[in-house]
Design goal:
heterodimer; A: alpha/beta; disordered N terminus; B: 427 residues; mainly beta; Porin; 16-stranded antiparallel β-barrel; two-stranded antiparallel sheet
């Protein structure tokens, strides 16, 4: 048998050295024209492949939150079909910005099954967000809300803690109790997907997406869509919101904890009865008054159904058990009425969402001038899970 | 021509010895860890480009000490049924055909010895992670149990990702998917013939992929875009049983460039090197070096989720002439690997690899310049699927062609064909 020869042995040595050097130089050259992928626009087609690799196990191939893990994940993975996203910079009820969604994808949600995907290419994250936006028709019909700006933080003082405690006692303690999530409503709360939704324990120093004071501020102002946690952007001034932030930061080992500022003997907020800021007095004349009630008999609008005429106004009053608000379902009002109704509402904190009425006696008025006749169904955002809803028939 | 009985017996013994060495020496599998899939409820594909090759998310997870730092890492916060243990069972069939320029060296196929792993890896709190991976390997030559890796890691010293410390039997931070991250078996000798495993003829063995005992300092930034690792280890292949009597160091730095778009999605540039020593002389008091250093490039093309991943490394190796019998000068060679992994659709993967070794300076006078040069070509397909987050199974088929210049028993060129098929179950 003849000697086997291998042509691949030829042309060695110096060419190999050159190849290694060339590879190194090529790598350096490539670095010269790279840039951060900030300007990338998400591509849902590419995003589908990203979604199938990273997301389907929890969120399901159809985006309904029905992946394999859903059966034993608490909280359950998000169902994207409603277009409801909790963690946003936009007003309550509105869609989040892409940056909001990217923040959740990148950082994950602390204490949940949602891990941080910040390691994957930002471009891939934008692609998968674009794909997630295909699951709900809301993304075609609406634009994200205008982001709420985090104002400059005032210096935390003992006085700001006390002011924050007063507001917390009125506006937050029915769910959050003394801060540990042990409020009287805590065990009865459910979210828009029908799952139990316990209030956050604020004494642990960290919640799902909140680490710093600015995060807490944003959550107070925007609320959590699809949950009983309302947005307070229409009810609290920035200064009042910061007061609440400073008080919350005194409850546990937050990154910017203010526990050292707590006055000696400061009681927990659930025992407080100090006055919280009142909602502005409604100026319109109302033909009908609906009381908002939360007591031992349950949470309800009284009456829960009224009939008015086009041009009338309806006054909603926080009678007891607040905070309350009124929010109209966009798909349960006459077609085309949404824009006019939005304009007729006072101090809205989101789409078709009235201000949060914190104190007993706080009120807001909704005018039905110029709207189409029909049935307008509404609910109380903090207490929807407790069945607090009603309707107005406009003739 | 019929072979004589002594020759046949010698060849059989050689094959068995080779097999045993390969089982013991190349025993370093790294498949998807169903324990993590169970714990985090993720598909294996979330962390692996194609199991077991890690993607950037998986690498960041590993760099964080097998933690996502999302408040669900600790056992107390996970499902009570979660245990940080996993099991792999593998069996394979391998067919080998080898010939020199003059004759057939061997020609046979057999069911491999297979292996089983019952390992544990995870984290104990924020600052401690661990990986213990004992392997049971069967086979006609007898069975064995050995540790593939066994280390403990202290995460985030001084509360920063920039400093982590790992101690024990460590899998070094390789610049290219290693045998353990690519091949589907513990005894695949093709996987053991990566250029980084090349040993200069006659010199002391040197195996960067051999998971030595040592201490590693490593760090990274969020997302593991920039990484470094420095390992101080004992060059254990010199027969020593004492840690650090052959002190050696290995290091690697890398950076990933995330591009805004286009066909080239991301790429990584890295550099690595090692200075290993071998005890030398009558009282083993003199240390002589084995040095390897080079660079690496990784390209991810076309798609973020289903990329065409191209890895390339090039390096220079040098062994001190005192380590090579008959040598009058240091041995110098170049090595390089190019590997391509492509996932056309989960859970299928196609892969190919080309390894080369080119000797530049022969340490022993009179040897041809190309003595012990190598070319290895590998092509394969893999299907590895997670049926649930608690169980995955897979198969792999690959073909390898290897040239070893002037390395046959008769002194001529050696040519080997290998066909390999394996099945794995992972829990």
């Amino acid at each position: 048998m003849g000697r086997t020869t291998f042509s691949t042995w030829s042309g060695r040595d110096s060419s190999l050295r050159s190849s290694v050097l060339f590879a190194a130089l090529a790598g350096l050259a490539l670095t010269a024209f790279t840039q951060a992928p900030e300007s990338h626009v998400g591509d849902p087609h590419r995003g589908k492949a990203v979604y199938e690799r990273f997301c389907t196990q929890c969120h399901g191939p159809r985006g309904n939150g029905g992946g394999e893990v859903a059966a034993y994940a608490t909280p359950r993975p998000r169902d994207f079909r409603q277009g409801l996203f909790k963690f946003r910079s936009t007003p309550f009820g509105s869609l989040p910005t892409v940056a909001d969604l990217d923040r959740t994808v990148s950082h994950g949600l602390y204490g949940t099954a949602m891990p941080p995907f910040g390691a994957i290419n930002p471009r891939a994250r934008l692609d998968v967000i674009a794909y997630i936006q295909t699951f709900s028709p809301r993304w075609q019909a609406e634009k994200p809300g205008e982001p709420i700006v985090v104002t400059s933080e005032p210096t935390a003082t003992a006085a700001s803690l006390e002011r924050g405690q007063a507001i917390f006692g009125k506006a937050c303690s029915s769910c959050h109790g003394d801060g540990s999530g042990n409020g009287p409503l805590a065990k009865s709360l459910v979210d828009a997907w029908g799952s139990p939704d316990a209030p956050a324990d604020l004494t642990r120093g960290r919640t799902k997406a909140e680490v710093r004071g600015s995060d807490i501020y944003m959550r107070i102002m925007t609320g959590l869509n699809g949950t009983p946690m309302p947005g307070f952007s229409g009810a609290l001034s920035p200064e009042q919101a910061w007061d609440v932030v400073h008080y919350v930061e005194s409850l546990g080992p937050w990154k910017e904890s203010t526990v050292q500022l707590r006055p000696a003997g400061m009681s927990d907020a659930s025992a407080m009865s100090a006055a919280a800021p009142s909602a502005p007095a409604p100026s319109a004349n109302a033909a009908v008054t609906i009381e908002m009630v939360g007591d031992a008999s349950g949470y309800r609008f009284v009456p829960s159904s009224v009939t008015v005429h086009v041009g009338d106004a309806v006054r909603f009053v926080n009678k007891i058990g607040g905070p309350h608000n009124v929010t109209f379902w966009p798909d349960s009002i006459p077609a085309g009425a949404q824009q006019r109704l939005q304009a007729n509402m006072q101090n809205t904190s989101g789409p078709l969402t009235g201000p949060l009425l914190i104190n007993s006696g706080d009120a807001t008025v909704v005018s039905f001038a110029g709207v189409a006749p029909g049935t307008y169904k509404f609910y109380c955002m903090p207490h929807i899970a407790l069945g607090m809803k009603g309707q107005i028939i406009v003739q | 021509m019929a072979q004589s009985m002594p020759y046949a017996h010698a060849m059989k013994t050689l094959r068995h010895a080779l097999l045993a060495l390969l089982v013991l020496g190349a025993a370093r599998p790294a498949y998807g860890i169903p324990a993590f899939a169970r714990k985090y409820g993720l598909k294996c594909s979330a962390c692996h480009e194609a199991v077991p090759l890690l993607n950037v998310l998986g690498r960041a997870f590993r760099d964080n000490g097998y933690r996502f730092n999302n408040g669900k890492d600790d056992a107390i916060s996970t499902d009570p049924s979660y245990w940080p243990i996993f099991a792999w069972v593998e069996e394979n069939y391998q067919y080998n055909y080898a010939k020199s320029s003059k004759k057939t060296e061997f020609n046979d196929g057999q069911v491999g010895p297979g292996f089983a792993v019952l390992g544990a890896m995870g984290s104990l709190g924020k600052h401690i992670s661990f990986n213990v991976r004992p392997i049971y390997a069967g086979g006609g030559g007898g069975s064995s149990i050995a540790f593939d890796v066994a280390w403990i890691r202290v995460n985030r010293l001084f509360d920063t990702d920039a400093l982590n410390v790992r101690l024990g039997q460590i899998d070094l931070d390789m610049p290219i998917a290693t045998a353990s991250e690519r091949d589907f078996t513990v005894n695949d000798f093709v996987g053991n013939l990566r250029s980084l495993d090349y040993a200069v003829p006659g010199s002391h063995g040197f195996d960067l992929l051999g998971n030595p005992l040592g201490v590693e300092l490593s760090g990274h930034d969020p997302g593991s875009i920039n990484r470094y690792a420095v390992t101080f280890f004992s060059n254990s292949n010199v027969g020593s049983h004492q840690l650090f009597n052959a002190p050696s160091v290995y290091g690697r730095v890398s950076h990933i460039f995330q591009l805004p778009g286009g066909f080239l999605r991301d790429f990584e540039v890295g550099a690595f090197g090692t200075y290993a020593t071998v005890s030398f002389g009558p009282d083993s008091a003199v240390l002589k070096p084995q040095v390897r250093y080079g660079g690496s490039l990784d390209f991810w093309l076309a798609s973020d989720a289903l990329p065409l991943h191209v890895e390339a490394i090039g390096f220079q190796g040098r062994d001190d002439h005192n380590l090579i019998p008959g040598a009058t000068r240091d041995a110098l060679y170049y090595g390089g690997d190019v590997q391509v992994d492509y996932v056309p659709a989960l859970p299928f993967e196609l892969f190919a690899r080309y390894n080369l070794i080119r000797n530049v300076t022969q340490a022993v006078p009179g040897r041809p310049g190309s003595f012990a040069d190598q070319n290895v070509y590998l092509f394969g397909i893999q299907h590895l699927e997670s049926l649930t987050s608690r169980f995955e199974w897979g198969w792999q088929l690959h073909y390898a062609l290897q040239y070893d210049h002037l390395q046959a028993s008769d002194g001529t060129n050696n040519l080997q064909h290998v066909v390999w098929a394996g099945l794995i179950l992972a829990f």
